[in-house]
Amino acid sequence: MADIPTFADIFDAGEREILIRPTSFNPEILRVDGSDVNLAIAAAAGMAQEVAQYAQTAFNETHLSTAISTGGETLDRWAYDRYGLTRQESQAAVVSVQFTRTSASLGFTIPSGTVVTSEGGITFAVINDVPFPLGEFGPLEVRAVAQQTGLSGNVAIGTITDVSSGVGEPTLAVNNNEVAAGGSLEETDDEFGQRLKDYHVNARRGTRTAIKAGAINTPGVADATPIEGIDPATGQPNFRVQLVIADSEGQANSALAERVSENLAEYRGLGVPVTVLAGIPDFISIVVEGLAFESSSNTSNVLEEARNAIMGAVNGTAPSSTLRLAVIITALEGVDKLIVPDGVVIEPAGDLIPAIGGVIRTKSEMISLNGA
């Protein structure tokens, strides 16, 4: 839609309309501030501009693409008014922790809200009471939620080792046998907009894209891959679905999988079970040799852009999906001032196919470009 007319545009249009018709007054009086006709045209132009601005706003708010480009509150209002959807806020990581003790001479209960801490100082609160009966050594498992939102809560296996004081059992110990997952940042305008674009496609429920949407609409989940079960004897679907999920760092755990399973009731086909599998990141090394540069380039900057391009391409691979060698080459070819001869990718030597539940990822320090 073209830009709305300004006050001056509308005033000029009013003046032209008057001048093309027979009049009994001097046309010059149109531009005399305070004259009756000047005031009349100015008032009409002001009202017309208000109407035009209102119409522009109403037009913008009926189009998703405009709402996305505007972003912020406009996009939030558009999404809620039409679909009842809200932007995903930053999320706290979830994890299952196990309590054990070396003395079982007394019975006691670890109360809900007890704080456990990782080696890096990230605190988690257990969400249920954990009763230790007389004679029970454990391990007893309970879900815990990080007390701060964001990526910092996605701590590694075996790092939650400290129990807050005041529990009442000096021999009590805690650990996590899986990564903490689901900690995320607030959904960006582009991410929220893409979810809204898929709304009508996924409204049919039970389809592949609908099941994926059910996972991604679960707080803390960034990607998901539905895999249709096939009966090996007949080659036909066996009415079973496996769904591999991952957070923004390519990992997941049983607590996040349970959260997705609860949310899928509104998305899966009635009577069709969906088994949710926590994604396991498979970090790969990438070695590229023989890259060349245009003569006017800053080679260090170009290599850094190439490294970022590879990370973006590889880490965009969906759970349980093949990483094509061509994806890495295409990412390199998109870097300005970089020349990519044939055969520059030494490792991996070909396409990589993960096991079910695997999520292919890489890190900056695992990418070697021309030996750097």
Principal-axis shape: extended
Q: Which stretches of 5+ consecutive residues score pLDDT under 50?
A: none
| End-to-end Cα distance | 49 Å
Number of helical regions? 10
Total count of strands: 18
What proportion of the residues is helical, as a percent range? 25-40%
The major pleated sheet works out as: 6 strands, antiparallel
| Element-by-element helix/strand order | HHHHEEEEEEEEHHHEEHEEEEHHEEEE
Give the amount of beta strand, in percent.
15-25%
**Integer tally of domains:** 4
* Spatial strand order of the main sheet: 7-3-4-6-1-8
* Structural class estimated from helices and strands: alpha+beta
Q: What is the compact description of this entry?
A:
The chain is α+β, with helices and mostly antiparallel strands and 372 residues long. The protein contains ten helices and 18 strands. Strands 7-3-4-6-1-8 form a six-stranded antiparallel β-sheet. It has a three-stranded mixed β-sheet with strand order 9-10-11. A three-stranded mixed β-sheet has the order 16-13-18, with helices on one face.
